[in-house]
Design brief:
Elements: H1 2-16, H2 25-33, H3 35-65
Length: 74
C-alpha cells in the first residue's frame, strides 16, 4: 500500500510540470559554458529594473507632497 501511494505522489508531481522537451537545452548549455557574461547581463537587467522602480517611487512621493513639506495632524 505504501509503494502505491509513493508511486501516485511521484506521478502527480511529474505531471504538474510543463514538458518543454529540448527547447531549454541550448539556454542551459549557454549558461554552463559562459557563466560570467550571463551573470553580468543578469546584474545589468536587475540594476535597470531597480532604477526604473526607484524613479517611479520617487516621482509618486514628490507628486503627493506638492512641495508643502511634511505636516503633522493637529
Amino acid at each position: 500500500m505504501g509503494e502505491e501511494i509513493t508511486t501516485l505522489i511521484g506521478e502527480g508531481r511529474g505531471s504538474s510540470r510543463p514538458d518543454f522537451g529540448n527547447i531549454l537545452d541550448p539556454v542551459r548549455a549557454t549558461i554552463r559554458n559562459h557563466p560570467v557574461p550571463v551573470l553580468l547581463m543578469a546584474v545589468g537587467i536587475g540594476w535597470l529594473v531597480y532604477k526604473l522602480v526607484r524613479e517611479q517611487a520617487e516621482s509618486a512621493l514628490h507628486a503627493e507632497d506638492h512641495g508643502r513639506g511634511i505636516r503633522t495632524p493637529q
